[in-house]
Description:
Strand content: 5-15%
Number of strands: 7
Radius of gyration: 22 Å
Helix content: 55-70%
Mean pLDDT: 91
Low-confidence stretches: 372-376
Distance between the termini: 29 Å
Shape: globular
Amino acid sequence: xxxxxxxxxxxxxxxxxxxxxxxxxxxxxxxxxxxxxxxxxxxxxxxxxxxxxxxxxxxxxxxxxxxxxxxxxxxxxxxxxxxxxxxxxxxxxxxxxxxxxxxxxxxxxxxxxxxxxxxxxxxxxxxxxxxxxxxxxxxxxxxxxxxxxxxxxxxxxxxxxxxxxxxxxxxxxxxxxxxxxxxxxxxxxxxxxxxxxxxxxxxxxxxxxxxxxxxxxxxxxxxxxxxxxxxxxxxxxxxxxxxxxxxxxxxxxxxxxxxxxxxxxxxxxxxxxxxxxxxxxxxxxxxxxxxxxxxxxxxxxxxxxxxxxxxxxxxxxxxxxxxxxxxxxxxxxxxxxxxxxxxxxxxxxxxxxxxxxxxxxxxxxxxxxxxxxxxx
Length: 376
């Protein structure tokens, strides 16, 4: 897709009724809050029969209602309460790294094991134990199968529903249905244990159960299960990809690594940092923040377009009219390499681009990994 946009410009037709867009003004209109661009049928295969699915729900009224139920849980203020659980996983990761000093290790794999254990901590106050085992027991391959299967089935969702209708007879032959497998089984077991034994941990499961207590008709057992399973499925993989990208690019760019270590050393000497670093402290580390943004820019966790449907009246993009009913979307890998926004050196890891105040607004609007208010 990157090469197609470089060849053909801001609009690339990817199917009989679908276009890919690399235009900042169009991106703002398509993905802004309250947009009239609804999700396309591509999302159906990820939702299946689940009634509660924030990612895949296509009905705007239902989605808004579901989002209101859990928005407070996922607000930054509430997520700060989970910092202690992240710290526990980070401390354990550090011990594991110390044990492996002077050894050759697959840093990419271990970072992924760490990310999954972090999500286990913040969701259930329980690590999966992947860092202990040094492996994932095939869990990562299952998620990969789901994403690969869903990516192509989303282009022809009718095949998913035909398979769904015939599955009682022919069995399951689609990887995307793996979302209903081991992940949900694990989440279901943890929910059952929590309800039987209780806990004073204020993790995400505890907060979901509190919402259920207050509004049982809207947050039933199936919805609690759906949210916790989605936490594992979506949160762990994206966290792993993003963390690996930042570490990889710092190792590949020793001068950037040197500047980051210099910032850490300086702030440690000035007693501005504690161990472990807190979220508030890291917000006051501009070069660290720039490295994080740049790592996510070069390697977005989601490599697919997030398709929407053009509303009545259509939309004009780069001087061309796109009629209503057209599937339209943006691929983060494409827009994050838009030279008009990020400069001519878009393939380079250059955190300094994020330190230029005048450029941050447009870069933030085109940055599809973090909400744009982070760049206000």
